[in-house]
Amino acid sequence: MTSLYLTTDAIRRGFFKGAVARIRELQRADGAIPWFDVGVFDPWNHVEAAMGLVVAGELEAARRAYRHLAETQAADGSWLAEYGSSLPMDGARYVFAAPLPKIRDTNFCAYVATGIWHYYLATDDIAFARELWPCVASAVTFVLSHQHEEGDVRWAARDPHTPEEDALVTGSSSIYKSLECAILLARALGEPAPGWDEARFRLGEALASKPHRFDRQWAKKDGFSMDWYYPVLAGAIRGAGARARLAARWREFVEPEKGCRCVAGQPWVTIAETCELVLALLNVGERTGARDLFAAVQQWRDGDGSYWMGYQYAEDVPWPQEKPAWTAGAVLLAADALTGATGAADLFTAVALEPFERDVSLRRQPARAREP
User: Fold this and answer.
1) What's the CA gap between 186 and 195, in Å, rounded?
2) What number of helices (H) and strands (E) belong to the chain?
3) Domain residue extents for the chain
4) Could you check whether the bond before residue 320 is cis, i.e. omega within 30 degrees of 0?
5) How far apart are the first and last CA of the chain?
6) Average pLDDT, the chain
7) Cα 247 to the chain's mean position, in Å?
């Protein structure tokens, strides 16, 4: 593996221009960013790609992406988990079929808060943050209406085709981070966030000390690497406990000089998961390991500088042969965290809130407006 040294201006100088171009070419006229060509659209991966646009300085494209979310949000604050559907991969590309059941995934709905706080940190554009605040507040209200008394958040809305009263480790961890962002955004704007601090605290407690609250009604998902590193990435598990968690299954999920496996025991590394693990490592102060892991990702670039979704190293082929927008977004977020290119560089590598802050005097004064 070739070592990689990124200067602080690597993004500005165009090292990741292929990743940026991939997101831009996939974004539709209405602002939506699908996974890949003629692919599905979902709010979580859409936000991941939009954050990549912000890192690259493509702010108008990012604003179109976030306005699309506001325009398509349901009255109760939710979105569907998927717009358009796909069958399993056929070895080369996805195949499309009739729509799947209309699931409203709570994690997907919460992620807009992370995206808008990220935008604000990177741009100081309080006017746009204020414009999108109703969208964020409505989404968070929807998500918290599905929080159980024990703190975990139901994986999806209570619809006839989603009867399981259960929670997911990865999804709840992502919600935990989104609540941090939502609370900070509310403070920056001087807006109310009733009960959000306490809800975040209870969710964090569930993630850190109530494993019995997750995967109660289906097979455990702990064979997926995201269940391993996401509580660390989100800041729900911190310090020595976080370092121990990553160390415990490192060999199981990380293939040396290749990246992070999506699924334990499978010879398949995925670029987005590897970049998220880079962020988790930075969160626990493992900068050298994070840098080395990010260097491994660079071998999975296509000739145009965009990134494959994953690589099947037993067969030595990219698999699937897709280059998703959200993969490009994850690469750009990791690059920003390593280089400090934007004001949002430490969003995923630091926890900005203690587990429970009741004191409203901690609120920031509203920032000055900046012209878009």
Assistant:
1) 12
2) 13, 5
3) 17-356
4) yes
5) 41
6) 91
7) 22
Q: Can you read off the two tokens belonging to residue 348? A: 């995923």
* CA atoms 30, 31, 33, 36: torsion sign: positive
CB contact at 8 A, 324 and 45: yes
Which SS3 state, helix, strand or coil, does residue 274 take? helix
Bridge partner list, 259: 255
Indicate if the pLDDT at residue 25 is higher than 80.
yes
The tens digit of pLDDT for each residue in 122-176 reads 999 999 999 999 999 999 999 999 999 999 999 999 999 999 999 999 999 999 9
pLDDT bracket for residue 100 (50, 70, 90): low
The CATH topology of domain 17-356 is Glycosyltransferase (1.50.10)
In the DSSP assignment, the letter for residue 310 is E
Supply angle C-alpha 329, 330, 333, rounded to 5.
Answer: 85
At which residue do the structure tokens 């975040």 appear?
Answer: 200
Show Cβ contacts of residue 204 under 8 Å, excluding neighbours closer than 6 positions. 151, 176, 236, 355
**Do 221 and 169 form a contact (C-beta atoms < 8 A)?**
yes
| Residue 360: strand, helix, or coil | helix
What pTM does this model have?
0.92
One-letter amino acid at 211 equals P
DSSP 51-107: HHHHHTT-HHHHHHHHHHHHHH--TTS---S-BS--BPP-SSS-B--SPPP---BHH
pLDDT tens readout for residues 270-329:
999 999 999 999 999 999 999 999 999 999 999 999 999 999 999 999 999 999 999 999
Pair of tokens at residue 270: 């995925």
User: Which phi and psi angles does 83 have, rounded to 5°?
Assistant: -115, 110
Return the SS3 of 366: coil
Beta bridge partners of 261: 269
